[in-house]
Amino acid sequence: MSTIEKAVQAHTERNAPLATADAAPANAAPLVRATDLAKTFDVSAPWLNRVIERQPRQLLRAVDGVSFDIARGETLALVGESGCGKSTVARLLVGLYEPTRGGFEFDGQDAHAAFKTPQGLQLRRRIQMIFQDPYASLNPRWIVEDVIAEPLREHAIETDPQALSARVDDLLRSVGLSPQDRVKYPHQFSGGQRQRISIARALATQPEFLVCDEPTSALDVSVQAQVLNIMKDLQRQQGLTYLFISHNLAVVRHVSDQVGVMYLGRLVELAPKHTLFDSPRHPYTRMLLDAIPKMHDTGRARTPVNGEVPNPLNPPAGCAFNPRCPHVNDRCRNERPVLQSIGGVRVACHAVEEGRI
Amino acid sequence: MSLLEVKNLVVEFPSRRGTLRALDDISFSIAPGEILGVVGESGAGKSLTGASIIGLLEPPGRVASGQILLHGQRIDNLPYEEMRKVRGRKIGAIFQDPLTSLNPLYSVGRQLIETITTHLPLNQAQARKRAIELLKDTGIPAAEQRIDHFPHQFSGGMRQRVVIALALAAEPQLIVADEPTTALDVSIQAQIITLLKTICKDRGAAVMLITHDMGVIAETCDRVAVMYAGRIAEIGPVHEVINHPAHPYTAGLMACIPDMSVDRERLHQIDGAMPRLNAIPTGCAYNPRCEQVFDRCRTERPDLIDAGATRAACWLHAQQSTKLPGVTA
Amino acid sequence: MIAATRRWLDGDIGHSFRNSPTAIVAALIAFVCIFCAVFAPWVAPHNPFDLATLELSNARLPPAWHEGGSSNFLLGTDDQGRDILSALMYGARISLAVGFASVVLSVVIGVAFGLAAGFLGGWVDSVLMRLCDVMLSFPAILVALLIAGVGRALFPNAHEALAFGVLIVSITLTGWVQYARTVRGSTLVERNKEYVQAARVTGVAPMRIMRGHVLPNVMGPVLVLATIQVATAIITEATLSFLGVGAPPTSPSLGTLIRVGNDYLFSGEYWITIFPGLMLVLIALSVNLLGDWLRDALNPRLR
User: Tell me: the pLDDT tens digits for C66-83?
Assistant: First the structure.
């Protein structure tokens, strides 16, 4: 067994798991339910410039009506290319942004309303986030112990200094680092180790829901494998629920249970993992799967892809994908498709609804 | 006769804590019209290899020993002016970030025409015609109008196409592409690597494609060199290296990559991390992490040894034995 | 302590220091000046501020190496009979004290405003930045003259005690702006970094984020600016004293001495003006050079 696997097992034997994922009955309410989430940013020029140069107000609809459910213990992955809004969805779900419209429920209660009240702190214990850039997600001036202890101090989970230190040590061991690393500074660690420190920090408050914004995109392949394995092990032991954001479909295939594909702020397809990868419905999903460079099976002919993601400030009318879609018709150019259940999968496409593809 | 030959290249960085060897005795060659991939993780030295070939090593880095030969002539020891003529005319370069590769103050056409007139004996009108043709070849629509646009008026994928056009402007025989698709979306990435393949084959230009993405290598390259800690671990035809890796590091790397076709509970992982430049182990640089390590690995550094269809720097193949450990006497 | 110093000397900054002759010389000069200033009562041969010890008969004596000079007064005396060498040390005391005090105050105010503007944004940011713009359009001298005039009108009898307060306040009022701007810029960058977002997700209050997370990371450029601005503050103080709105003549700073000596320059009694001038130049130059070196030494790490 590798050192990391041994460490993880030792940690499990010391701490009983919090909630077992397999105990949830099939019809239990989802832990996270997002309903028509939308976020619009005002990126207009300053008022004076607008008046003098007569420029219009410019609104960026980063997220435009996204709804999904995540059951306890599951992983929902959101994939898409740049500008699709997946990072904004992540930040909406941890309370870093206020939604312009819609909202989400966490364990039955309205999360954004709760964030505004003093009880919001309780909610923040249960929802945590892991970020993409291992070099910017840790304060370069703080030692690792302070970084991991911050949530513990903030929520007054451990007030006794000895107990606090012991807990920090435990968390470090659970991600495969040594307790002697607590006095070091972030720059003394590699990218993969820093990401593990971020995971330890996120787990400090024993959250139920972790939002992971491209946690392995900045890491090398071998380090990525280590971090993904740790995340999966921790999920199994602690019954964690993940929202996993990524642009790498192979990684998504490895970690997720459900996959949602986003394009220009909208969800175009939402399906269980195997269904999505084996028989993708939406033309954009098919295009994405086709475009991934494959290591084996490279001689296959592919449908050429055309066009680029349009400017999010000026999305096309109707279906956002219509300029690039090989199956476009007039209805697509005028009417925006709604995400609906078709054959066990949720797709937003007129052609699929009409049975054309 | 090979187009580019690198022989025993050593690149060092003198620092106050001692001299760091970033590239330690690298040798490989590129045939005319071939696409060679150079793959490795961060810190392996692949970008440095590209930079040394183009002659753009950042001081205090320098070529400490070895040779780089283009068409049989040394280019690593040329004075600045001579190297400037080689760069652009014989070697073109494509870098990772298309935004910073183009000068934002000049129109795309002006940058293209400048490169063309510097290296080819054409006048302004002929150069402009050629620039428009290049833009058309790289798939930029309405090339006659867009030639006068500025870089910020192009999207990311379009800009990378312009950079490719710029690299090909003076008809070089070798293109060094350093992570050309890493900053692009997946769908654009597919377009760009197709473009790179076709346009280089059409013009007979060889390509040295540096990247960390094995998928891109598999789709594009003829041969691939896998780098580890400043050395080449394995080199050979791309499908052999991917499907039948001879070096334990290559095998580990292939196993780590999540595959679209196979569902696995846990990804294979290689324990430990690539050693830092000032702490490279004696013998084979991979020996602390290798599952098939034996005594010789810890003391002697292996050269590239024939191992079937590829060449690997691994003592497992020293006796022309198979890849099974323990068979060596 | 010794081990710590040795470790520091071996580190990157220490190494850069050892390799830069300018920095070493500048540090030595600055150290000597500061030493003399701080320990003036023990180091100086006389006390020029003690009016009881002054004798007008000693006035305007030339330095010791001229004829007519005396070894009692190594650099000569001024028009009141004060020993120039001692006056240099005591005057440097005032100059350095005013310089450091005004810089410390400027840093405190500027950093606070800059953090608030960068972190809170919105109208707070707009108001503070317009305030900066307004302050920048006033030269320090005019502000000082204004405040001095106002002070004198308000407190006609407290002139002496007030003089130093006025000096410090006027230099501070125009000095804080550059810190505010620099810190605001750095804060805007740090605010979007993921470690700040992580703290927000955890639920840490904005004040604690500003103080604990952002502040340590924006202080780098501030330290460099502060070192250089000490020199500027000292020169500004000297200018103000030269103009007569600074340190009073009974406890002269270097600037006052220069002014006093100016009248005697053309009658050949150069020492009253030149030596304080040289001292001023030495202090300002050495502090400036140290600041330059610090900026360069910190730079690669800041990147």
Answer: 777 777 777 777 777 788
